[in-house]
Amino acid sequence: MIPSRQPTQPEADGLIPAAMRVAATRGRRHAEPEHPFRRPFQRDRDRIIHAAAFRRLEYKTQVFVNGEGDHYRTRLTHTLEVNQIARTVARALGLNEDLAEAVALSHDLGHTPFGHAGEATLNQLLPQGFHHWQQSLRVVDHLERDGRGLNLTYEVRMGIWGHSKGRKNFLDLPDHIDQLTLEAQLVRAADIMAYVAHDADDAIRGGIISAQELPEEVRQTLGLRLSQQIGAMVRDLIEQTAGSNAGIIKMSPMVSDSIMILRDFLYKRVYDNLEVHNDFIKASKLVRELFGELMANDAFFQAQIGVSPEGVDRQQMAVDYVAGMTDSYALLLYQSHFMPRPWTRL
Length: 346
Prior knowledge:
Number of helices: 15
Shape: globular
Order of helices and strands: HHHHHHHHHHHHHHH
Oligomer: single chain
């Protein structure tokens, strides 16, 4: 368990007693020499930034399908906003910034194209289900660097494992809390803080809702504008955590309840909005048919992925391939395989 402490009292290295220190890491899956001037969590962050899966986040949907507008968030900009919040809070509280940043930057690496529509579709198709946090771990452990993986530290990998919250209260921590550092708990909170604020901002920009339609509790507690909302949430998290010795990330009931209210409002008015939901339905059909074709059509599978090596599950290879697609690649592949081409011969 994370020990009780007074977070406002940093030690000589600038970190509070409950912060994760490099000397206490449980190490990597495969031992490797340390770098002469970069510390382990810093190396993890750098490996993540240079990963192919990280670059692909730029072309994956957050809420509005990628390409619908220049200023709507993508999965990459969401990741960067989570990272910004995590770094700000980590610095203010005296936590390990490198670790918080590595977890924030890697938490969505396994997300599918078309956001949660793609994830929900694969979850329905697979007997064992599909969850993006599991796929994110698969990306960093097995898929990057031609199958060698990124060989990240245990603490970053557990941060990826523990970031997903579903529709539950985001302050309710998962089982085995002793495996989640305070920095990983911070990213759990930063994730929802970022997306409720920026998804509301995108919905207002897109004309789906107006700022005045936000629930009264949200307007009164968090404010109308993105900067006000992020500022209110960050201040509350810092003040409540710094003033507690409970050993966990904390927020006041007023602010955490407002976040939950805003999230529920977004589900009703934005995510389930007919215009947005129609895109989700189309995206779901696309993902379903591409995956089905990979499983049923040997020639298509081999043309796209290659021959399954002995002992490697074909279904898992298809999942990895589809989950790794960007929105644009999935659209192009679907069009080229399923849609007729105009006959051009005169």
